[in-house]
User: Which sequence fits this backbone?
């Protein structure tokens, strides 16, 4: 059993996001005072405005870093490393960085954060299951067709509950300093199989269509997405989804002492909540 030794307060960046909300609630359940930081949150924090960083960090004992939109965007590695350095100077004792699996730029960010804060814990995550219910893929699921430029490449989708739990462990327990947890789910699924599981769980017919990358890029542009986000999505669904992440890891077991949650449990939970029911959303 890990030794729980909460430190307080903890500055949680991206606090209103998929991981941040869960990190916040779990830390609070452990008695930690959380500074919930984002552009619109109670603690003003903007990655693009360093003047907001110092006040947010003042007096903090811990720091959770979830960079938005993604560590793969130009300049992100230097930005998160600068925050880590500022945090160390401000006396922050525990730092966790949320990173992405198979992304060269995310690994650069990990190295730079480690240079600034050698004791930082890295949680390097596979694609989140919750992308299907709380993010970019929800619209397609509700419309009954998800189209992506990814063929039959297996991906070990990870539950954000597990990602956040690993981050919370790093911030509130002994024994995680300097560790790298590469976290995946317990099973690989192609995107087509994942969508089929969602269809079965929610009792609806949902198609998965593998589209040519150029068609996908054109559709994103036509939908009015910023070029930076189009470029990021193309990178994630072509380069990062080329099969390099088609393997399972033991990161959740190592961080939490239990196996990761399966996609079927995730799908059953979301279906029961009504979030995939077009009539209720
Ligand atoms: N999705 C995946 O499958 C996946 C897999 C592995 C790793 N990751 C990593 O997860 C991270 C994103 O975490 P998430 O998915 O939990 O977040 P999210 O759900 O995308 O939410 C983004 C959060 O960041 C805040 N934010 C956005 N722009 C900001 C800015 N300029 N300055 C300060 N805060 C800003 C948002 O709040 P405001 O709008 O109020 O600012 C929100 O709290 C990325 O670094 C990504 O690389 C994602």
Assistant:
């Amino acid at each position: 059993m890990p030794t729980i030794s909460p430190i307080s307060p903890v500055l949680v960046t991206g606090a209103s996001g998929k991981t941040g909300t869960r990190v916040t609630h779990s830390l609070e359940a452990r008695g930690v005072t959380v500074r919930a930081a984002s552009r619109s949150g109670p603690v003003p924090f903007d990655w693009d405005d360093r003047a907001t960083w110092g006040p947010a960090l003042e007096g903090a004992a811990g720091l959770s870093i979830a960079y938005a939109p993604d560590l793969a965007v130009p300049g992100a590695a230097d930005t998160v490393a600068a925050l880590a350095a500022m945090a160390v100077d401000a006396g922050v004792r525990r730092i966790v960085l949320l990173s992405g699996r198979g992304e060269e730029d995310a690994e650069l960010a990990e190295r730079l954060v480690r240079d600034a804060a050698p004791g930082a814990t890295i949680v390097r995550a596979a694609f989140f299951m919750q992308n299907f219910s709380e993010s970019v893929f929800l619209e397609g699921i509700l419309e009954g067709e998800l189209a992506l430029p990814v063929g039959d490449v297996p991906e070990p989708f990870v539950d954000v509950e597990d990602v956040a739990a690993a981050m919370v462990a790093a911030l509130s327990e002994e024994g995680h300093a300097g560790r790298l947890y590469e976290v995946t789910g317990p099973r690989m699924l192609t995107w087509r199989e994942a969508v089929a599981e969602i269809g079965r769980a929610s009792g609806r017919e949902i198609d998965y269509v593998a589209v040519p990358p150029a068609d996908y890029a054109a559709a994103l542009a036509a939908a009015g997405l910023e070029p930076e986000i189009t470029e990021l999505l193309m990178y994630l669904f072509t380069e990062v989804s080329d099969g390099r992440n088609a393997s399972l890891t033991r990161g959740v077991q190592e961080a939490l002492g239990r196996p990761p949650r399966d996609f079927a449990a995730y799908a059953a939970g979301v279906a029961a909540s009504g979030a995939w029911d077009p009539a209720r959303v």
Q: What stands out?
A: DSSP finds twelve helices and nine strands in the chain. The longest strand covers residues 94-100. The CA atoms of residues 144 and 206 lie 4 Å apart. Residues 14-20, 38-41, 45-48, 66-68, 70-71, 98, 100, 125, 127-128, 131 surround NAP (CB under 6 Å).
